[in-house]
Every structure is written in C-alpha cells, then in structure tokens.
Amino acid sequence: MDYRDYKKTRAVVIERPHYADLREIQLTEPREDAYIAQTLFSAISTGTDMKTYKGQQHPEQCYYPLVPGYETAGIVAAKGPAADGRLEVGDRVMINECRKYGDVCAAWGGGSEFTVKDSNTTNDQFDYMVKLPDNVTYQQAVLAYLACVPLKGISRLTLRPGETIVVIGAGMVGISAIQELKILEPSLQVICIERNAFRRTIAENYADIVTSPAQAISVIYDATNGKMADQLMECSGNPEVVGTLHQYIKDGGWEEDDRPAHIHLQGDYPDRIIFDHYHRWFVKNATITMTCALKAGCKEQVLSWISEGKFDTEKLPVEVWGVSQCTEAFAYQEKAGADCFKILFDWSR
C-alpha cells in the first residue's frame, strides 16, 4: 500500500474510565515525511495506562475516548517520499509514541495496529522509531521502552564505586533501574524496597538485597554499617511513599567534601504528595531531582544492552494476550494490581 492509503486502523480505545475496547479509528492524513508502522506487539503500562483506565489522569492532559499505550514494536509498512531515510519498508522497529489520531485522543501513546509517524504526529526528541538488532525480539523491544525511562533519571545521579543505592518499586521501571545501575557501575550495592511479595521475588533476580517496607530501615542500616543509602530512586509511583524517603538516606552535606544524599523521583504520581515533618528532611541536606519520559539515545542504548545480553528480560513474568482480548485484559490488570507484572498484546490474535 502507498503511505497515503492508510486512513483507518484498529486500535485499543479506552472509551471511558474502566472500559477498553478494540475498534476502528481514523488516522491523521500522513505527510510526505511519514513512516507508517504496523504494530505486532504492544503492552499495558501498569503506571500511565492504568491511571488512564481508572480515570485518574488530570483532565487537561487527556480526554475520552483515547488510545493508550506507548510500548509498541513491529515493522515499517510504508514510507513517504520525504521520509528521513533512516528506515526502510520491512525494517523491524520500536514504534512507540503517536501524539495525534484523527478522531480520538492520543494520550501520549500509539496502541493502534497502524501508526502514522511524521512531523505532525510525533516530535523529534524521542518519538522517532529505532531499528531492532537482529537478535532482539518484538517482545523484548516492547519491554525496552519503559527501561528507557529510568535511564534518563539515572543520568541525573553521580554513580560512584561502592556506594549504596536504594530503588523503591519492582515494576518494569524499578526492575529496569536496578539492572541499569549495575550495568553502569557494577560495584554498586543496590537495595530494592517492594511492598508486593510477588514482585519481591522478581527483584531478587536483579538486586543485591530485596526487602519489604516494614523491614527496610533495619535492612539498609545493617547493609551500610549504619550509614544508610547514598542515593535513592523512587520508582513505585506511590505518592504516600515520597514524603517518607528521608528515613532511608544518609546524613551529609555539613562539610565541603561531605556529599549529601540524592533522591530521584521517577514515579508517575496520581495524587498530591505530602511530605513528612520538615525537620526530618531539613537536616538531611539532600538533593531531590525528577524526570519524566525518556531522552534521545535511550532506546538505542537499551536495545544494545539487550542484544549484548547485559539487560535481562528472560526473568520478567509477562503474560501474552491476544489484542482481541483487550477489554478483559485491562479489567484483569485492574483487579490483579501488582500481582500481574506485565501484559503484552499479540496483534495477530
């Protein structure tokens, strides 16, 4: 098909809070610089997509009906005469973001069978598609997207040999952060705090130490000989956690050569964050940073690590559903919560 012939597509559509369906939608008219991508596998984001499904997004950010999803992989189906030339028809790619559809809200994603990727529907900061290494599967490419999110956050940290870093949350973002920290500085001691027992068993494959919140303070104290964590990444998305993070980090910052602790907020928080009593924070002299989404180069780096066997997706308990079951899959994910790690959609089913 010519790139101009792509006018409609099947898509996963959240029609209203707590109801998703697979139906036809309109695509925007492709520009001459367009690539047309065909999705073969996609996923439900247990953070952003489930907030959207539950009606927890703020109304200025999106509206219903909408197409969720930004974790997608497939092939280049067509391209326009002014496409940038980086890709050819038939190339296997990470597809990811689409910012506009013809008759529904895009909601940051691209959970559609066909996606228009051009200067109208995407930006050139990180929306561009990336070709997959030959030994990376479509399912691995779908999982690679959320691994890019903490990689951007880690760039805000200074990784020093032998330090202790705490990662809170063992969802896809937290597990990815643990792996990337160990890839970038193997001598780090990485401690994961996770409240869900099932996800703690997943984290045990990647972190040096895994603990529940109830035991976390004493575990970190013992692991650091009383010093506590040098740095911390909050990846749970739980707003109730953020205001208590001071209890896990070291004291510091009193002298010029005495570096304070660093906290990086990586979660996507649906509700207001309430901080604990200020004096408990004030004396920490801590640095707090935050990042959203990903940045250019992250997709290429994560795919390279997967290809080289450095980033391991084999121990991640994903469930593969046919996309025709999307209504049931979203309802199942809502009910299961943290006891379901990740649902992938096979668009051939």
Strand-helix topology:
Elements: E1 8-16, E2 19-26, E3 35-43, H1 48-53, E4 72-79, E5 92-94, E6 114-117, E7 130-131, H2 138-154, E8 164-168, H3 172-184, E9 189-193, H4 197-203, E10 209-211, H5 213-223, E11 231-234, H6 239-242, E12 262-265, H7 278-282, E13 287-290, H8 298-307, E14 318-322, H9 326-336, E15 342-346
Parallel strand pairs: 8-9, 8-11, 9-10, 11-12, 12-13, 14-15
Antiparallel strand pairs: 1-2, 3-4, 3-6, 3-15, 4-5, 5-7
Helix pairs in contact: 2-3, 2-8
Word description of this protein:
The structure is a single chain. By secondary structure, the protein is of the alpha/beta class. It has two domains: 3-146 and 294-346, Medium-chain alcohol dehydrogenases, catalytic domain (Quinone Oxidoreductase, Chain A, domain 1), CATH 3.90.180; 157-290, NAD(P)-binding Rossmann-like Domain (Rossmann fold). Helices cover 24% and strands 22% of the residues. The chain contains nine helices and 15 strands. The chain has helices spanning 48-53, 138-154, 172-184, 197-203, 213-223, 239-242, 278-282, 298-307, 326-336; strands at 8-16, 19-26, 35-43, 72-79, 92-94, 114-117, 130-131, 164-168, 189-193, 209-211, 231-234, 262-265, 287-290, 318-322, 342-346. Strands 3, 4, 5, 6, 7, 14 and 15 form a seven-stranded mixed beta sheet that branches. Strands 10-9-8-11-12-13 form a six-stranded parallel beta sheet. Strands 1-2 form a two-stranded antiparallel ribbon. The chain is globular, with a radius of gyration of 21 Å. The two termini are 22 Å apart. The mean pLDDT is 95.
